[in-house]
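Might I ask for a little of your time on a matter of protein folding? The record follows directly beneath this note:
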Amino acid sequence: MDMLLEASSMAKRPCLCANDPGCRHSHGCINPEVSKSEQMEDLLEAFLDFSDSSSALSLHLSFEKLLDSRACDSDQSLLIDRALRLGSALLEAGKRSARKRASIHNSMTWALPPDLTIKVFSMLDTQSLCYAAATCSMFHKCAMDPLCYANIDLTTVVPKVNNAVVSTMIQRAGKVLKSLRLGIVPGPTLSPGSSQPLVYTIRNSVDAAGFSWNDKRSRQGKESSILTRSCLAALSGDTGAAGALLRRLHLYNIERMDNTALCAALSACPSLLDLEIVGLHVELRQTLMSVSTNCHLIERLFFESSKTGRDDSLKALTCVELVNNCPHLTSLALRGFKLHDYKVRILVKGFQKLKYVDFSSSYSITGTFLRNLGSSTGGSLLEVLILRDCMHLKEVEVAKFLSAIIAGDFRLLRLLDISNREGLASEGDWYYRCYNSSMIPIKQVLEERPDLCLLAEFPSEGSIIEIEQMIDILNSDASLSSHLSSHSSESSMFMSSSESSYNSDQGSGNEDGREAGYVIYEESSDEVDILAV
């Protein structure tokens, strides 16, 4: 012990056993002609000879004796500090050596070569990949390969990811990035044909466990785990290399995202094939214009409004430009927007390869766009058509469409959803909600087309929504919360706050301008922060 701690101050003197390695090791003698590294090795070897458990007591006694030999208290403290530093350095050296040996052992016993290991890691989800990287240095080295981050999925049930995490993952992927999914998804991933809303707001912020999302966010910290408008900035960084080959971009309920930031991100993704946007506070028209300008190869577009029935920004010219600039589109979903039939007709008839259409919860669609659709090139290829809960969808237009199916049109159609929890609108007055089995030939369709899955869920036959009930819903804040909790029932005669806001429109649903009675219930991030306190 004395020799190890005071090696630097020992007087160098000739040793009779300098030429005898065995004697030198046993006596701890130092040969001045030996290199400094060899001297350290000799001292360390001599010291480690006393590291077994049987000599722990003698080591302790020797150190106490060495301390007693120091008359000054400051010298004793200095000696203790040197001993602690030496012990810490030995501990770290031992850990590093153990990790190195373990890594060598893993590389020898691991059945797969590095290239196949990287291939396996590239198939893992992002969280599992991070767990694998923390296992050992060999796995960590493989997990840092850009191919492992080609498909990044950072979606969570509650906020856990911030901009720094997203930026790091995108930078690791670099030019090989193919898929990026971000944001808050309120539940398990839904099937493509599902019409369940994915919008996640303060009005449906209670998860399956029964805990409020706002409560969880307050515990985790509001700012540290929130994605902001700049979360996609890494896509356009480094001259846009990361976004150049991106094929799929899914964004869910990033409430601080705005039009400018989204359009900047889309401008960096010219190879985009699949775009899914849910619950973002961005305008439909500007988003479609950006897609039309930058994403000419897009094949799937899914856009769900954060505020059902309030976005009336889409113009006919925007629809025409989208059709002309994105001819490869096969799947189109615009859910919860205020869409007029002539604009919808431009889209459905214009896209020559369109197979999947979803306009669920869209306001103003009456169904007139369905007329003569089966005889046109744009509509004859449809395989899925979803018009669930379109408040102005007329019973007579649905009947005409089903008659066209019976007559032999839409032979490729496999799924049709015309369900409406409030019933279909009558021809003369859309306030009168009804379902007449004699007018809608559902049985004939099923008999004629047994391969067609027809979803037609309605309230009790002949049910009517009274205008007075709707006015009560609009004017009573207390009733809104109670109706929200029971809006999933198919036979319910009430509507959620978003639906009741656009039901206040007195027109048929195809007017371009808003009526004076159009009620808007605004919801801002400030309100969320207040509720989270």
